[in-house]
Amino acid sequence: MSIRFGTDGWRGEIGIDFILANVHQAIIAVGNFFFHKYRQGVLLLIGYDTRFQAQRFARYCAEQLSWLGHRVLLANKPITTPVLSHAIRHLQAAGGIMLTASHNPPQWLGIKIKNEYGSSAPASDTAWIETLIGKETKPFAKGCWQIKDFDEVYLQAIHNRVGAVFMNQPGQKVIVDCLYGSGQGYFPRLLANYGWQVKEIHAEINPAFGGLNPEPIAANLRDLQKAVLQQQTVGLALDGDGDRLGVVIESGEIITAQDIFLLLLYHLVENKQKCGKVIKTFSTTAKVDLLARLYNLELIVTPIGFKHIAPLLIQEEKVVIGGEESGGFGFPDFLPERDGIFSGLNLLELQLISRESLPNLLNQLKQKLGPWHYQRLDLVCSPEQLECWHHKLNTIPAKIGEKIKRQEKMDGIKVHFSSGAWLLFRFSGTEPVLRLYCEGENPAEVDYLLSAAQDWLND
Ligand SMILES: O=P(O)(O)OC[C@H]1O[C@H](O)[C@H](O)[C@@H](O)[C@@H]1O
């Protein structure tokens, strides 16, 4: 099996591709990469989520990296990816690895590589790692590894940023769906200090993830919707490694990651007086462009994957927010990495400061920006089918449901229609899936375009 790093790290099915022999090859290549990059053994941190055997593999990686000559700190429990990123910065480590398959189905596991900023390693680094896979090696120094708590400094950093607002509002309630991932326990630990009631669901270790996929999208949030309706309070959901956010409002409706992005941008500008650039990925709602324009903020669009946003959070002088369609949002004055917990707290903070519910705030935005409806369809397919669709997408017809006005290629192929609607065809870089992303004015238009796209693909 060849080990390939996709949108964020290397992923494989446990027991099929993600087996000890392959993990061994990958981690030795990672260890060699850090040695070549810094010309010496360095401090590397290791985290892991709640997936089957993630802790065991993480320990194996700690042993191998220290055998090679690095100093390694291994998390003492499952942590979120942003906790690892924060610890890398706090301890000035050269980087780290996270054993996780993020939002992918339970049978998957993977390795995300982090650089010294705590961000996902750029493609140039992972390409370098790929060239080192399978190369013979020997230890280059004397290393060591130890177990360490990374949570405390992270929780303190969050408290320093948002504590004041939350402290003044005791007695509030929130429900958190951990989707059996490693985001368990953080909200209670943070908010209980401020007199909040936090109820967590799916907050236990369950390698089968209760039959759900740990991705905070509609298909996996039914239990959260029920709990929200019972408790009449807002619900937050995290993905498997806590870097993405999903939200259910008091009515039981899910608000999409596009809505969350717009609300966060509104909050940062209106309530926190932030100014600077706005960064979004190619698949994210066009309403972000419009809101940025209304606020006179420059917009930068990147390919999909937070690894494209993270360097801009570091290099650009001023950035308000960087966000992506899949629910990952990064705040440059906190971390150059997305964080579901910090994003969720910012949304709660928006409600507290504005004394408005999220649906009211969204309605206000709709008045400003006009209506929108956004949907993503994931077409799971065999390698043969993928090949066939790759071929098909080489020639886009003049019409898919509606006449196509123009095409745009950055990551996949986006077609724009005269109505202002658009449709993006893109192959996932983390799983065997063709993703169709569509945005229009209303659900009927989006449904129509998505089914026209499927008809054309299957024709
Ligand atoms: O659509 P995919 O290529 O599967 O990628 C979806 C997501 O994968 C990973 O989680 C990346 O870190 C994200 O930045 C990206 O949005």
From TrEMBL:
<dbReference type="InterPro" id="IPR016066">
    <property type="entry name" value="A-D-PHexomutase_CS"/>
</dbReference>
<dbReference type="Pfam" id="PF02879">
    <property type="entry name" value="PGM_PMM_II"/>
</dbReference>
<dbReference type="GO" id="GO:0005975">
    <property type="term" value="P:carbohydrate metabolic process"/>
</dbReference>
<dbReference type="InterPro" id="IPR005844">
    <property type="entry name" value="A-D-PHexomutase_a/b/a-I"/>
</dbReference>
<keyword id="KW-0597">Phosphoprotein</keyword>
<comment type="similarity">
    <text>Belongs to the phosphohexose mutase family.</text>
</comment>
<dbReference type="GO" id="GO:0008973">
    <property type="term" value="F:phosphopentomutase activity"/>
</dbReference>
<dbReference type="InterPro" id="IPR005841">
    <property type="entry name" value="Alpha-D-phosphohexomutase_SF"/>
</dbReference>
<dbReference type="Pfam" id="PF00408">
    <property type="entry name" value="PGM_PMM_IV"/>
</dbReference>
<keyword id="KW-0479">Metal-binding</keyword>
<protein>
    <recommendedName>
        <fullName>Phosphoglucomutase</fullName>
        <ecNumber>5.4.2.2</ecNumber>
    </recommendedName>
</protein>
<dbReference type="Pfam" id="PF02880">
    <property type="entry name" value="PGM_PMM_III"/>
</dbReference>
<dbReference type="GO" id="GO:0000287">
    <property type="term" value="F:magnesium ion binding"/>
</dbReference>
<dbReference type="GO" id="GO:0004614">
    <property type="term" value="F:phosphoglucomutase activity"/>
</dbReference>
<feature type="domain" description="Alpha-D-phosphohexomutase alpha/beta/alpha">
    <location>
        <begin position="154"/>
        <end position="252"/>
    </location>
</feature>
<keyword id="KW-0460">Magnesium</keyword>
<dbReference type="GO" id="GO:0006166">
    <property type="term" value="P:purine ribonucleoside salvage"/>
</dbReference>
<feature type="domain" description="Alpha-D-phosphohexomutase alpha/beta/alpha">
    <location>
        <begin position="4"/>
        <end position="138"/>
    </location>
</feature>
<dbReference type="InterPro" id="IPR005846">
    <property type="entry name" value="A-D-PHexomutase_a/b/a-III"/>
</dbReference>
<dbReference type="InterPro" id="IPR005843">
    <property type="entry name" value="A-D-PHexomutase_C"/>
</dbReference>
<dbReference type="Pfam" id="PF02878">
    <property type="entry name" value="PGM_PMM_I"/>
</dbReference>
<comment type="pathway">
    <text>Lipid metabolism.</text>
</comment>
<dbReference type="InterPro" id="IPR016055">
    <property type="entry name" value="A-D-PHexomutase_a/b/a-I/II/III"/>
</dbReference>
<dbReference type="InterPro" id="IPR036900">
    <property type="entry name" value="A-D-PHexomutase_C_sf"/>
</dbReference>
<feature type="domain" description="Alpha-D-phosphohexomutase alpha/beta/alpha">
    <location>
        <begin position="260"/>
        <end position="366"/>
    </location>
</feature>
<dbReference type="InterPro" id="IPR005845">
    <property type="entry name" value="A-D-PHexomutase_a/b/a-II"/>
</dbReference>
<comment type="pathway">
    <text>Glycolipid metabolism; diglucosyl-diacylglycerol biosynthesis.</text>
</comment>
<feature type="domain" description="Alpha-D-phosphohexomutase C-terminal">
    <location>
        <begin position="409"/>
        <end position="449"/>
    </location>
</feature>
<keyword id="KW-0413">Isomerase</keyword>
